[in-house]
Amino acid sequence: MRCQIRTKLMIAAGLLPLVSFASAGLAQNPVRGEQLARTWCAGCHVVTSGQEHVVTEVPSFRSIAQRKDFDRRSVAYFLLAPHPPMPNLSLTRSEAADLAAYIESQKQVK
To answer: What's the predicted TM-score (pTM) here?
Structure first.
């Protein structure tokens, strides 16, 4: 009986990283993030190259991505919490991760 429990625990422990990796991969889609950015963020932020600035004191996604302290996870968590003056977007965790991945992709855009 103990051997069966130990075997099941070993299998579960071995599968846990795979499950975490799969869910993390699904939650970081910069293409979906770009769609969200165009819908929810482009009214204030410059979210794509060639877009005109709408609100001058609001940073572009490219400038956010190029900050030395930029961290995709921190940005995703930041997007989940209401933070004036930005509106409360009520993003899901997956949407926040996608949006953060898109912002990160803007680091190298010229």
So the answer is: 0.72
